[in-house]
Amino acid sequence: MKKGSPLKSLTDKQVGFMLVIPGLAVFIGIILYPFVNSVIMSFTNRSLLQPNYGWVGFENYAKVFKDPYFLQTLGTTFLFVLLATAIPFALGLIWAIVLNQGFKGAEFLRGITLVNWIIPGTAIGFLWSWIFNGQYGILNGILKGLGLLETGIPFLGQTGTALLCVVVARTWQMLPWYMAFLLGGLQGVSLDQIEAARIDGAGNWRVFTHVVVPSMKTIMTLVFVLGLVGNLQHFDLPWTMAQGGPARATTTLSIEVYTTAFKNWNMGKAATIGTIWAVLLACFSFIYLRQVNEAD
Fold it and tell me: Is 44 strand, coil or helix?
């Protein structure tokens, strides 16, 4: 630092604060201000159909929790989050164990697996919409070819199968993500412990449950919670494939906020649902941060 520079007289804390200011300004402008503004908006009757609005207190919250459609949306959201996290997590763990064996071609298979992770979610949504299409979908074509069906099944047009179709698409999209993290965790498991367990007569299942799982407990918990958070705020696949239908069978909180705000024009109610949604996200985020602190 040059002699006579005004920065020379600053303390380390003052210099550190100056370095933090740009990042803090970005955080306030992009994240904090919109969030606070949305929370304030949730206490108003603001609408895109009229310029004037007023303060209504907790009226929006009372209406939302009394709305049977909102309770249905919560149920659909939790079901989607649970299935879309547990299924690819389990399959990703199985595939990670297979690839961790180090057989010839394992690296090639790992690279092929990661391809669909980088495909945009909208493209994946259109791909699986075509697969599940009731008239010209490839799945119906295969089932007809095998003689199992005479007419096509509108998988995305039925309330009993639409959400499952979205979960399948989400599983296909996220399996590589789980596989990559869990494979990294598997490679950190002590081979000496595994060999010692095998010498003691432990089979594959006992080695997995008594050696591998305890060694990977932290990474498995972190990956699972991150998956829950990601699926709780997921939007593109359910919207691209079914737009919340049929009969709200695939309407999650993210879709509910979008349709309430930009189809029903009710910004106050949309902000209310968004605030509730943010609280749920904060709960999972708290669990994640606690696990991270315990891991450190």
Answer: strand
Question: Could you list the residue range(s) of the whole structural domain that residue 89 is in?
Answer: 70-250
User: How many residues would you count in the chain?
Assistant: 296
Distance CA(140)–CA(132), nearest Å, equals 7
Q: Which residue has the tokens 């367990």?
A: 197
CATH number at residue 116: 1.10.3720.10
Pairwise CA distance, residues 119 & 124, whole Å: 7
DSSP-H helix ranges across 117-203 = 121-131, 138-145, 162-186, 191-199
CA distances from 236 to 190, 213, 241, 245 (A): 40, 33, 8, 14
pLDDT tens readout for residues 139-169: 999 988 888 888 888 999 999 999 999 999 9
In a domain? residue 196: yes
3-state secondary structure of 266: strand
Note whether residue 206 is domain-resident: yes
Hey, what are 108's tokens? 């090639």
Whole-model pTM over 0.85: yes
Structure tokens given for 16:
């550190």
pLDDT (tens digit, 9 = 90+) per residue, 96-143?
999 988 788 888 888 888 888 888 889 999 999 999 998 888 999 998
DSSP-derived 3-state class of residue 50: strand
